[in-house]
Design a protein that fits this description.
Protein name: Thioredoxin domain-containing protein
Keywords: Repeat
Distance between the termini: 7 Å
Strand content: 35-45%
InterPro entries: 6-blade_b-propeller_TolB-like, NHL2_NHL_rpt_dom, NHL_repeat, Thioredoxin-like_fold, Thioredoxin-like_sf, Thioredoxin_domain
Shape: globular
Number of helices: 5
Organism: Actinocatenispora comari
Radius of gyration: 24 Å
Number of strands: 44
Pfam families: NHL, Thioredoxin_8
Length: 623
């Protein structure tokens, strides 16, 4: 990723920034001419994407370090239909603490001009307006830091760098009782404990959901343990009341998924004291020294987590919805250990034994006897675990979503939940089990609460017109429920819908790549960064995993290997999505204490087999 003065003549002139409107600029519309003389970093993101949210946080120290020479611009490029709504984009910018200008690009105009193909994608523009680097995925902080230092030095020397204050203008704050609350639980005394996510606190509310009794956390971003008024969180989400016997043994009553800190925190309700009980504070990354799909197990305070989003007590342990790496983990608070349980880190939808199944950003959990229900947000799916197997009842994949109810049918012969293959959700974040055994889903991007009947597979809409509901709390006896209406900053008891919602079906359209009949060579191109070498001190430095949806798309070539080139054979006339995960480990070549890095990227490539198409499929892994 090195940049040299002599290279600039070969650089591509950066396309103009075009979209619907600008946010965080005080109403000013920016052009590249306005930014000439500054280094510009474009962050193509969408607010459903956990990897995009990781990058927003990775960029915070870089923005601070290069504040007088770098302008970061978020280009919001939506995947889901809801993410095109202007109000939803405005809310997301505040919700996730985006403190730089944002271009709202609902038609993907700037996305296409910069040839982005994945969320997130980063592009760097030098002070003279040339694109000097692009990269997809997360984990590029170190590489960006080196590139920016080189750009600053080069353009300071030739007088083309203009230092000064950037164009960011923060919007005025709005008063509200809560700010983008995430999840809620009932406490034994009848009060409610809510994760007040954008305020980085927990709020205990009266049973009416409208009166704040106390707050836990200082309200400042941080990870400090200690008394209620000194401890700190970063965008907490899931909250779980431990069983009394477990709480007595560990000395805290409530477990909190402290999402952006990549931690689990324990809260003692008697005085609100907070302590860290799992995680190091660093996000989990695949380690080339071991199989990245192997179970991460051991001392919970020594194991990295990745955006824990929700929690549920199931079969003697706390299950963690590990949204950041598309897995479910188990945490035993008594022994203080944590272990991977379900999912392989591949983001997709595949049922089967929990260790081999695929999840896609699980964000809601609810236990019901021997079943654990999962709101799998990126696949717009409702799924459950039973007897060590993961099953799907609603949802078909990463790119099909919508709002469709179904009438259901008769009970299944074996008493298992009946699938509802024609029902559709849109990025659900919450799930709960009602007193009568029905499953309630916070269908977040549809602004609705949905009801699924396990016995018949019937799916109905109970309430609509909500603003990004993120959790639902059924009444302990009866059909009513409270909703965490995150986008409206409140808990609400909605009116039940009188009529069924009209069916709406959507699909995220991406360019389809034709591939040849017969054998096709998949080449993942990786160039070792200047000054670095492949790190083979712990075994092969590269790894390639290939899967397909549907699995019948590939007749040869699926699986895991260490070579970045693979022979694939597609089924005649087939079409589907080829999922590719590649990684490469490097270390500084000459340093006395070399820094080591792991570059990893996931691709979902829609393909169709066609006569005369190319027999080589090339992807670029950027270090």
């Amino acid at each position: 990723m090195a940049y040299h003065q002599d290279d600039r003549r070969a650089r591509v002139r950066a396309p103009e920034l075009r979209g619907r409107r600008w946010l965080n600029t005080g109403g000013r519309e920016l052009t590249l001419a306005d930014l000439r003389g500054r280094i510009v970093l474009l962050d193509f993101w969408t607010f459903c994407c956990i990897n995009c949210l990781h990058v927003i946080d990775e960029l915070r120290p870089i923005e601070e370090k290069y504040a007088d020479s770098l302008v970061v611009i978020g280009v919001h490029s939506p995947k889901f239909e809801h993410e095109k709504a202007p109000d939803a984009v405005t809310a997301a910018v505040e919700r996730y603490g985006v403190h730089h200008p944002v271009l709202d690009d609902p038609d993907l105009s700037t996305w296409q001009q910069y040839a982005a193909r994945a969320w997130p994608t980063l592009a760097v523009i030098d002070p003279q307006g040339y694109v000097v680097a692009s990269m997809a995925g997360e984990g590029h902080g170190d590489g960006l830091d080196r590139l920016l230092a080189e750009l600053v030095a080069t353009h300071t020397a030739d007088g083309t760098l203009v230092r000064g204050q950037g164009p960011y203008v923060p919007p005025p704050p709005e008063p509200s009782l809560l700010r983008y609350p995430g999840k809620a639980v009932r406490l034994s005394g009848g009060t409610l404990l809510v994760s007040d996510s954008a305020r980085h606190q927990l709020a205990e509310l009266a049973a009416d959901g409208r009166t704040v009794l106390r707050r836990i956390g200082s309200g400042e971003r941080g990870a400090a343990d200690g008394p209620a008024d000194e401890a700190s969180f970063r965008e907490p989400q899931g909250v779980l009341v431990l069983p009394p016997e477990a709480a007595e043994r560990v000395g805290y009553d409530v477990l909190v998924a402290d999402t952006v800190n990549h931690l689990l925190r324990g809260v003692r309700l008697a005085d609100g004291a907070v302590r860290t009980v799992a995680g190091t504070g660093e996000p989990w990354r695949a380690d080339h020294r071991t199989d990245p799909d192997a179970a991460a197990a051991g001392d919970a305070l020594a194991v990295d987590l990745s955006s824990p989003w929700d929690l549920a007590w199931y079969q003697g342990a706390a299950v963690i919805a590990m949204a950041g790496i598309h897995q479910l983990w188990r945490f035993d608070p008594v022994t203080g250990t944590v272990a991977r349980w379900a999912g392989t880190t591949t983001e997709s939808l595949r049922d089967g034994p929990v260790g081999d199944a695929f999840l896609a950003q699980p964000s809601g959990l609810a236990a019901d006897g021997d079943r654990l229900w999962v709101a799998d947000s990126e696949s717009s799916a409702l799924r459950y675990v039973q007897d060590g197997e993961l099953h799907t009842v609603i949802g078909t994949g990463l790119f099909d979503f919508g709002h469709a109810d179904v009438p259901g049918g008769g009970p299944t012969d074996d008493g298992t939940p009946r699938p509802a293959p024609d029902a559709l959700l849109q990025h659900p974040l919450g799930v709960a089990v009602a007193a009568d055994g029905a499953v309630l889903v916070a269908d977040t991007y549809n602004g609705a609460i949905r009801r699924y009947e396990p016995a018949t597979g019937a799916v109905t809409t109970l309430a609509g017109g909500l603003s990004e509901p993120s959790d639902v709390l059924p009444d302990l006896d009866g059909p009513g429920f409270l909703v965490v209406e995150s986008g409206a900053h409140r808990l609400v008891r909605p009116e039940l819908a009188a009529t069924a919602a009209p069916a709406a079906r959507y699909r995220t359209e991406r360019p389809v790549t034709p591939v040849a009949e017969g054998a096709v060579t998949l080449d993942v191109v990786f160039e070792t960064p200047p000054g670095a070498k492949l790190d083979e001190s712990y075994g092969p430095a590269t790894r390639l995993e290939v899967t397909a949806t549907p699995p019948s798309l590939l007749t040869e070539g699926a699986g895991v290997g260490t070579d970045l080139s693979r022979r694939l054979v597609f089924a005649p006339g087939a079409s589907g999505v080829l999922s590719v995960t590649a990684q490469a480990a490097t270390c500084d070549a000459e340093a006395e204490n070399p820094a080591c890095h792991l570059t990893r990227q996931d691709w979902g490539v829609p393909v169709t087999v066609a006569a005369g198409a190319d027999d080589i499929l090339a992807l670029v892994l950027r270090g």
